[in-house]
Amino acid sequence: MRGGATSPVKVLYVAGLGRSGSTILANTLGQVEGFFSGGELNFIWKHTLIENRLCGCGKPSRECEFWGPVFDTEFGGQSEALAREMMRLQYSGARTRHIPLMLTEGGRRKIEERLGKFLDNTGRLYESIQSVSGSRVIVDTSKEPAYGYALGMVPGVDLRVLHLVRDPRAAAYSWAKKKRQPDSAEREFMHQKSPTQSAVLWDAWNAAIEVLWRQMPARYLRLRYEDFIADPRRSFEEILKLTGEENAELPLVGERDVKLGISHTVSGNPNRFDTGTVELRQDRAWQKQMNPRDRALVTALTLPLLTRYHYSVR
């Protein structure tokens, strides 16, 4: 551990395909005392220091009263040169194409050597986030399996993995919709995927997550988004147990409502800007509005894992 750190930085890493409900889950967890929700921290170097996108608090990242001290304390300011170097290193060893290397001992050593400074600076970053936020647990919704696995290589990081799964047809329906992206001046709408692209990625990422972490049951929890919405209390209890924070107060108002405060999320779905009382409820629009051909295609492409995760084929 670096500097004055006396204990590892506990990170709850949300892994899974995008459009699976990770933003509302993480925003809710951010209301737990001792938890800090940082959003998709794998994009922090690009979205914060280079593109100056909006923080979850609504301010441009460089003007945010949270992220300023995080970088000033550990890196002497918000350096674009450092950000570009970190992005280059990240792309060299923490991308989806590197997952096969991560599955062998020799490959893991190569990845660790290749990432080098990236791992060191990532550790410094998370320690600074913990220090400035005063948190015990940092919630990171980056979702990418390779980045999450690399994060587990960072000295001083105590990684816990929440594998979030959503029905692939619901995810595909969401990916196909045109959705505004208010935090970027360069792109008006969020990236879209075809049903085929979404289904193939859903298969690949969920399979990779299982292979990378299923041998560590004490640090890994798989949660279906539908089960979280159906019984949020039980889901929160399981997540708090995973992080060793069983005594923390649940972030619920009644049984289904959560009260969201202002967050300092780096990147993610536009609902990261939501505040106030929000009801956790199922979104079943895809069941009525999704093109039947697209639904059948996604069902066929994801069939093995679809049944493994106990989703209905019909």
Automatic annotation (TrEMBL):
GO MF term (any one): N-acetylglucosamine 6-O-sulfotransferase activity
A Pfam family it matches: Sulfotransfer_3
InterPro entries: Gal/GlcNAc/GalNAc_ST, P-loop_NTPase
GO biological-process terms attached to the record: N-acetylglucosamine metabolic process; sulfur compound metabolic process
Protein name: Sulfotransferase
